Amino acid sequence: MTHQIVNDKANEIKVNCEEMLPPFQVPENSQEQIAIVGGGLASVHLALSLAQRGKTVRLFCKDNALAQGASGNKQGALYPLLTPENDLLSQFYQQAFLFSRNRIQQLHTEGFHVSHDFCGVLQTGYNQRSTDRLNKILHAQDWPQDIVQAISAQAANDLAGLDINKDGAFYPLGGWVCPAELTQAVFAKAQTLADVQIRFNSKITSFEQTEKGWLLHTNEQQFGPYKTVVNACGSGLINFEQTQYIPASNFRGQVSHIPSRNDLKKMKAVLCAHGYITPQHNQLHCMGASYVKDDLNRDFQPYEQLGNLEKMQQSFGESNWVSDIDITGNSARVGVRLVTRDHFPMLGLAPNYPEIVKQQKALDKNNKKLAEQYWKETRPAHFEGLYILGALGSRGLCSGALAAETLACILCNEKTPLSEEYLERMNPNRLWLRKLIKNRPIY
Ligand code: FAD
User: Fold this and answer.
1) Among 65, 180, 270, 297, which is least packed, fewest CB within 10 Å?
2) Ligand 1 center to 254 CA (angstroms)
3) Distance CA 435, CA 443 (A)
4) For position 24, what pLDDT does the model report?
């Protein structure tokens, strides 16, 4: 069977830097510039937040256009992640959701093209466990109506425009966004505000620390030195000597493109259950997504296409419209997201894992109290000037903008929009630090 569209690169909008700008030269004052390695949502959001503060930014991207990695999908769902306890994670995602939504609205108002529809997101359970969990979330807190509402089966049908026939949760300010266009628009706006340039086809193979700052190496060239470098390489974040130990894992995901037809055309809200499906855009619905650990292969997989359909059947199987989902065109896009176990993104200085291990080994193994005291007073070793922004997982549309804004504040010595407590939860060293304080070996 031939695959009509695989990875769908043909339809992706390409901003080719060679057409827009000559490849940038690295001038004498490169130390004053902030270098970002990336090309997806994390890096462009950071470029925009820095440009808003008048900073000079140089981006290095391995591909020939923006958003060729996880950020290249046609549609993604935007809604907050909530927990029954409304803990820090849940509070972070609510703030991030509103921040991201505002940024998209502002871009749109300013004339930047970002296909999106804040049509609301409808979430339902797909088995007893998930239904119980959703109910627990809905009833454990007095949530603001703008964030989430418990809705009846009848209201679900009305809001979805389709037979759902189940109670559920409705996120009225949520919806879908085209991440690929958002990436382009955020970058385009950053360029209107400050000296922000990108160098495509530049795969950074290593970071070298020198007295004058960091050198970035490709196979052919070197750039810098930069005092400040941000690794925002998405799934590639852990491919560098300094960041290889970061505790985060890559998960491949395939999003299926479904032709809009029959009842599917009536869909009015993003539907999330076991997987998700979006209302049509350009005659296609996005349905996803598979979740395969440690698989970096980006080829189309027929069984993942089928898996996406089966998730919809499991979630909404009794509704007629599910039979209108046609996967036979084998149209899909594959990306890889970097995921943390605690679902927080990572932002901050890159920890120096080998040095932290040395720090721990130098302590008396049997003295728990001393270890606890030591790690409360001593900063785990890190690489000065080398930062991390990423591990946005399956929620980058929601978390990316606020995570980047926060890092921009750190880089500019400003007060951050998130308190110290959140920063600790997003610090790339957090998972080790938890063990260090308990005197558990991290090596
Ligand atoms: P990426 O977009 O992958 O960008 C990384 C960039 O780094 C790439 O452009 C690459 O060119 C560049 N790069 C990598 N290595 C190097 C190097 N050595 N040198 C130079 N450049 C390099 N989120 C939602 O909120 N809602 C959704 O519905 C949703 N659905 C998803 C479905 C799938 C299948 C996937 C994969 C992700 C989904 N996400 C969703 C998550 C979201 O897309 C990601 O969290 C987000 O795009 C990650 O952005 P990023 O910039 O960190 O990574």
Assistant:
1) 297
2) 13
3) 10
4) 56
At 425 the pLDDT is: 97
What is the H or E stretch that residue 41 is in? helix 41-51
Residues with Cβ within 8 Å of 208's Cβ and at least 6 positions away in sequence, in order, are 214, 215, 216, 217, 222
HSE of 391 in the Cβ direction (CA atoms, 13 Å)?
23
The first and second tokens of residue 292, run together, are 């395969």
pLDDT digits (tens, 9 = 90+) for 406-431: 999 999 999 999 999 999 999 999 99
CA dist., res. 99 & res. 106, Å (int): 11
Q: Give me 261's structure tokens.
A: 């037809």
The string of DSSP codes covering 350-391 is EE-HHHHHHHHHTS-TT-HHHHHHHHHHSPPPEEEEEEEEE-
**Residue nearest to ligand 1 atom 40, measured at CA:** 394
pLDDT at 12: 37
- Whose CA is closest to 434, among 348, 367, 376? 376
Cβ–ligand 1 distance for 236 under 6 Å, the answer yes
**What pLDDT, on a 0 to 100 scale, did the predictor assign at position 10?**
34
Q: Which amino acid is at 96?
A: A
- Predicted confidence (pLDDT) per residue in 378-391, tens digit: 999 999 999 999 99
pTM of the model: 0.94
Residue-wise pLDDT tens digits, 245-270: 999 999 999 999 999 999 999 999 99
Q: By three-state DSSP, how is residue 424 classified? A: helix
| Residue 336 near residue 234, CB atoms below 8 Å | yes
Length of the chain as a residue count: 443
Q: Which residues make Cβ contacts (< 8 Å) with residue 135, sequence separation at least 6?
A: 125
Please say if the pLDDT value at position 437 is more than 90: yes
Distance 402 CA to ligand 1 centre (A): 16
Residues 6+ apart with CB under 8 A from 131: 124, 125
CA distance from start to end of the chain? 48
Token pair listed for 443: 């090596």
Ligand 1 centroid to residue 166 C-alpha, Å: 33
Task: Say if residue 415 is exposed, middle or buried (CB neighbours under 10 Å; 0-12, 13-18, 19+).
Answer: exposed
Task: Give me ligand 1 centre to Cα 71, in Å.
Answer: 4
